[in-house]
Amino acid sequence: MKLAVPALLLIGCSGAAAVNSANTDNATTKVAPHVQVAAAIVEPAVPVPAPAPASFEGSTWAGFGVANCSYLAPSSDFIGDDDAIDVVWHFHAGQMATADMKASEMRTVFVSCGYGIGTGGYSSNFDDPNRFSGMMRSLLRTVSFKAKRDVHLGHFALASWSAGFAAVNRILGSSEWYAKTDAVLLFDSLHSQYIDLPEDLKAGAGAAASKKVAARGADHVDTKMLRRFIRFASDAAAGKKRMVITHSSIVPPDYASTSEATAALVREVDVPSQVSAETTAVPFGLPTMTPSVVVDAGNLHVRGFRGIGPHDHFDHLQLIGEALRSWIVPGWYSPGSERH
């Protein structure tokens, strides 16, 4: 069932964990904050040919015994000689990006989980630190049954759009899953709260106060809420992990925007920064998207875009295929199509 764009924007833009809803009507009338961004600090890696494309012909989403989740597997040739399967686990509206996932032609199993409006469901579903391990076991059992062979986890990536970042945040809080996660992809999905707000400006103090809260800038972002993402971004910049972050220029009414949160993260990773009015040197994104931010530091890749309307937010949901082809495939496969 397709929902109207305004309704979906409300689902998508409920960003910070303590915020249950956002007045998205304000988003289209506010001016995007001035954001500091990082310059590239490493030379790009030598391109690696993509593996033999996977075919998803006839493949459909199916359940695997976990509520609110389903999986999509290639029609054949996605299980390695060592019985490993690669998995990309996406939180929030993943099935709306089915065509983009298939277009990646990755020999991977995609999982899509949705827990409703706002970040609350994405966070509370992982109050039990062992929950995600159980979810993964259910997936592997199902794939093993269908394939008539025992499979195990190979490469693993966590992805999210919009409010789904709250689930990724909780999963990365597990030392086991932090170690097993090769890549994190956040599509207009990194939010936080502001720090040191006067009482009359705190979220929930009323509409007039909310207007004063909006667009306070990256220096006011609560980076403690981003600590797991900052750690992962630091590891990616050092070449130990892979991370892709995209953001729009939408300004929420009472919590930090994705552009502010991303700028704060980049600063904490200690990547040299500069102000960029517009960047077109590295093409990425849909033809309708106007780039403004480029960061390439090791395996950390940030792409920021202009746009403060509902469609600008939804454009980011469609970037997963291109992001996987550009930055995950070269790290997961050798020129001979074998897993690293």
Brief write-up:
The protein has 340 residues and is an alpha/beta fold. Helices cover 29% and strands 17% of the residues. It is built from eleven helices and ten strands.
If you had to describe this structure to a student in words, what would you say it looks like?
By secondary structure, this protein is an alpha/beta fold. A hairpin with a 2-residue loop joins strand 9 and strand 10. An eight-stranded mixed β-sheet has the order 2-4-3-5-6-7-10-9, with helices on both faces. A two-stranded antiparallel sheet has the order 1-8. The longest helix has 17 residues. Helix content is 29%, strand content 17%. It has eleven helices and ten strands. The N terminus is likely disordered. It has one domain: Rossmann fold (3-Layer(aba) Sandwich).
